[in-house]
Amino acid sequence: MRHVAGLAVGGPLDPTLPLTLNFHPDRLADGVPILRRMAEDGVYLSQFATGTSNGGLTAHPGGDRWHWESRIFGAAYDAAPARVRPVYGALNHRLRAVGAAPRFGSAHFRLVPEVLARSTFCYPDSSAEPTAFGVAARCDLVARASAGDLPALDPALDGYVEAHVHGQVALARDVAALVLDPSHRGTPVAEAAVALGCPVEWHPGFRLSLEVLEANAGFRGPAAVALGRRLAEHGTLDPRMIGDAARSGAHDAQELKWLWHCLVRFGTPGQP
């Protein structure tokens, strides 16, 4: 926190802006449904501890994420146990119903406002070697992200202010609500969510027609479109279908990620 605070500029963050942790609620961690794993642990853990990710799997000593964290946090976590490393989310400055960074999952935890005080921020994403950082007391990153001054970034997928929560994220203490996609109503995901002990809410939902997917085939390429055709039901894709495919192990993980990006980019409710 002290290291990043020394790099931060700007005025204080708006304390009413929600901090969200997006993730796929229907994936497995060590062969266990991830919500069940969370209920057993009582905490939200980083990919260093879970070995799962909706981005890149480089959270190990010497991996890309290890080096990013070493640079961003002034080597503070270089020798730290996996369970004490920060967890990643984003500042929902656009107040999106689907969370601040849906590229990482259809569900999100909305954290209580008190968590902002022990969070650090960067823009763009830590994988892009950012040089702009913030803490709650000093942060100009919302203005940077809102200005769209990095044209290579897609607002729907990449236009978020990344957040790092330092200290444990306890579900009972730090989570205001778990917000799920309606495609998971009546599924094991909805049943498992009850055991977390936090309020459960539902956002409007991700849906994408095959017609729109095919019209935007250049976005993630023909492999994603072909997979979408195989997975769609009644000409439509939603998060539950992609999650079922991911757990089956019968499909290429990269192609599933590309298809998810298409669903977020072209099927997201509300503003981009």
Write up this protein:
The structure is a single chain. The protein is α+β, with helices and mostly antiparallel strands and about 270 residues long. The protein has two domains: about 1-200, no CATH class; about 210-265, no CATH class. Helix content is about 30%, strand content about 20%. It is built from twelve helices and 14 strands. It has helices at about 1-5, 35-40, 45-50, 65-70, 140-145, 155-160, 170-175, 190-195, 210-215, 220-230, 240-250, 255-265, and strands at about 20-25, 30, 30-35, 45, 85-90, 105-110, 120-125, 130-135, 160-165, 170, 175-180, 200, 210, 235. The strands form four sheets. It has an eight-stranded mixed beta sheet with strand order 8-7-9-5-1-6-11-12. Strands 2-3 form a two-stranded antiparallel sheet. A two-stranded antiparallel ribbon has the order 4-10. Strand 2 and strand 3 (about 30-35) form a beta hairpin. Helix 10 crosses helix 12 (about 255-265). The longest helix has 15 residues, at about 255-265. The chain starts with a helix and ends in a 5-residue tail after the last helix. About 40% of the residues are buried.
